[in-house]
Every structure is written in C-alpha cells, then in structure tokens.
Amino acid sequence: MGAMTSTIAPAEEATGLRERKKRETSRAIEVAAVELAAELGLGEVTVESISQRADVTSRTFFNYYASKEDAVLGNSRAFPRPSLHDLKLRRGASVRTTVLEAVRDQLSGFDFGTPAYQHKKRAVLLASPQLLAKDFQSLGDIETDIAQQTRRLLDEEGLVPPAERDAHAWAIVFFIWAVVRLALQTWSQSTDTRRALADHVDSASRILSEVGRARS
Question: Which of 34, 44, 170, 194 is deepest in the core (most CB within 10 A)?
C-alpha cells in the first residue's frame, strides 16, 4: 500500500503551527497575569513577574501586550480585534440572526479557560477600577463596530425605514450582548463540560426571544 500523503502544503502547515504557538504564548502570558493579580493585587504585579511566571522574556511579553493591564484583559497586540467588516447578509436570514451567528462563531474561537478561571478574572477586574474602565472602553469600541456593520446590513436589506435604522442597529447590538452575557452565565454554571459556549449562545438567544414574545 502506498504511503498516505497530506493534503496540507508544508508552508500552510508551518503557518498553522506558528499561529498555534503564538496563541499558546499569548494565552500563557494572560493566565500568568490574571493569576498574579489575583494573588498579589494588580499594583504589586510587574511585567517581569508575569514574564517569569509565563516562562517568557520581557521582550516576548511586549511583543504580545503593551502593558500588564492589557495582559490581564487579554488584549493582545499580536492579534487584530475581531471585526464584522466582511460580513454578508445571509440569504433567508434576518440581520439580527446574521450578526448573532457571526458573533457566536467568533466566540467559538476564543479560549475562555474554565469557569473557575473566569470567576478569578472577574474578581481581579472588580478589584481594579482602572481595569474596569479599560475593559469598558474596549467593549464600547466593539459595540460601536458591531453597530456600524449592523447598520450596513440593514441598509443592504432595506426592510427597516432609514430613519429607524440607527436605533434598530443598536437594539440588535444590545440584544446580542444580552445573549452573550446570559450564555456566559449559563456556561459558567454548567456541569456539562462537553457543551461548547456556542451551544449556550444558541440557548440564550432562544430564551431571550421567548421572553421578548411573552405577553405580560
């Protein structure tokens, strides 16, 4: 029997390995930063201590993060922030469904760690006003980007009156954030470790839609 050959070109394989290694390094630095901040308080944490805990050099740290605050938040300069600029309206789907599915797919690519890790990270954020402010700013930027792309899709769809499209776009953004927050909540409390976050997003969307349709 002849030897099996890979359908992946060597260059593509190498690129995939490098990308995986970059994400592993970025994640190791983030986890080290969160753990140290939880143990010592953010004020006592230094780039050097994070680098030592993550087993990288300070130079490597700054290749991935601009500051210890960014490391705790996971805002890596090595990877561009996810964007919906290339999102196209899916045939037969509403704008809300199209955008929600795109956000869900992006979340599926993130490594959130364990629920215990997320609880630890949340505690660090709550204990650090400057981190909360920075996190809110990042979320605000993401919200604005999603709202702009949602408005673009509403313009393309043409079903909502032009004067209402901005408000409609922001309503979709707020609905999606509510879905994501509920999904993270149920994921963090779930005992079924096999159930992916994307499944929780689908369930959260269904529940919130049912609540919205319920008569008082």
Answer: 34
Helix axes 165-189, 115-126, angle to 10 degrees: 120
How many other C-beta atoms can be found within 10 angstroms of the C-beta atom of residue 163? Answer: 7
Question: For residue 18, what are its two tokens?
Answer: 């490098």
- The one-letter amino acid at 138: S
Residue 210, amino acid: E
Tokens of residue 85, six digits: 């600029």
Summarize pLDDT for 161-206 with one digit per residue, the tens: 999 999 999 999 999 999 999 998 888 887 766 677 888 999 999 9
Tokens of 52: 């030592």
Same domain, 1 and 67: yes
87 and 191 fall within a common domain:
yes
The string of pLDDT tens digits covering residues 21-33 is 998 999 999 999 9
Using CB atoms within 10 A of its CB, is residue 80 exposed (0-12), middle (13-18) or buried (19+)? exposed
